Amino acid sequence: MPIEGLQQYLHLVVNTGNVLNVNKKAGQKPSEELVDCLKATLATPAIEAAAKGAPSSANVTRSGDDLREKVAEHERASVKIGAKLFLNTNSTENLKNAIDTLLSVLGVEYLDNLILAYHPEGRTTNGTAVNGNSGEDDDTKEGVMDWSGGHSDAIQDLKALWKEMEEYAKSKKICQLGIADLDVNSLKELYNGAEFHPSIAQINISTCCVVPPPLQEFCQQNDIQLLTHSDPEEILSKETLKTDLDVENFAPKWTIRFQVHVKCRGVLAAKGYVIGASRE
Q1: What angle do CA 91, 100, 83 make, to 5 degrees?
Q2: What is the pLDDT confidence band of residue 7, given thresholds at 50, 70 and 90?
Q3: pLDDT of residue 52
Q4: What is the pTM of this model?
Q5: Per-residue pLDDT at 109 exceeds 50
Q6: 214-258 confidence digits (pLDDT tens)
Q7: How many Å apart are CA 214 and CA 261, to the nearest integer?
Q8: Kind and range of the H or E element at 161?
Q9: Using an 8 Å Cβ cutoff, are 59 and 15 in contact?
């Protein structure tokens, strides 16, 4: 059954809180883990209307969550907070909402790092269509990626999003900026036009079997940490919200995943997701 009371709102923020003691299934795909964490949150939801100035918005959390307590157990300087923002729409407003919401949810003034995963609509990756077309791309299998998918304005859209992220770096709200899934030419263009250079680059091992040597070389030359991941481009769809979570007539606008590590011990103290969705 649909979650009672949600349909009166135009915008939702769903915060899973700390899921370390909630979701204990090993070997899950990232999208499966997210769905299970959201199911646990919506099973015992605490729904609260947002600030008085935005009565059409609501915050949904899991009753009895201990996220704030886990973060506050340690001095801020002794923990490392990293996050990844999945953004499949070109919207600086959504980007800012996601970052500001996460800072508020965690009750902290800054993040140690944030990786942006932005993919232009309508592109294809390794023969798998994203929002539309399909086709076979043998070059991708050989380690050559095309992040833009043929969209000539994609890099300009990304630069606009990056500029907003740089504002958070300027105000010391994000210490390190990262980017996911760029091919070497797109990464070079972003890097050369940036005031705050990306210090982390992620590559999806499921869509690029071999790390392209030019990308590896560029990252080495410019002190960019090159990491692999297995996240899907669209980690949460409106179909999943409806069919798996009974949240009808809403479309996700952004998803952010966070992790809190205790530096001296390397222990994972907290992990969770926050999503933003709007009614269609």
Answers
A1: 85
A2: confident
A3: 57
A4: 0.90
A5: yes
A6: 999 999 999 999 999 999 999 999 999 999 999 999 999 999 999
A7: 32
A8: helix 154-170
A9: yes
Taking the alpha carbons at both ends of the chain, their separation in whole angstroms is: 19
* Residue 118 in tokens: 């932005």
The 10s digit of each residue's pLDDT in 120-161 is: 765 444 334 344 333 334 443 434 457 876 666 899 999 999
What is the per-residue burial (b if ≥16 Cβ within 10 Å, else e) of 177-194? Answer: bbbbbbbbbbbebbbeeb
How many residues are recorded in the chain? 280
Nearest CA to 46 among 64, 22, 68? 64
**Strand spans (E) along the chain:** 11-15, 45-49, 57-62, 79-87, 111-118, 124-125, 128-129, 174-180, 200-204, 225-229, 250-262, 267-279
To the nearest 10 degrees (0 to 180), the angle between helices 154-170 and 92-106 is 30
DSSP 66: -
Instruction: Give the C-alpha separation, 104 to 159, whole Å.
Output: 26
CB 260 within 8 A of CB 86: no
Pull the structure tokens for residue 33.
């883990």
Strand partners, 272: 258
Residue carrying the six token digits 């990306």: 198
CB atoms closer than 10 angstroms to residue 267: 11
Q: Which residue has the higher pLDDT, 30 or 148?
A: 30
Of 83-87, 181-185, 193-197, give the lowest mean pLDDT range: 181-185
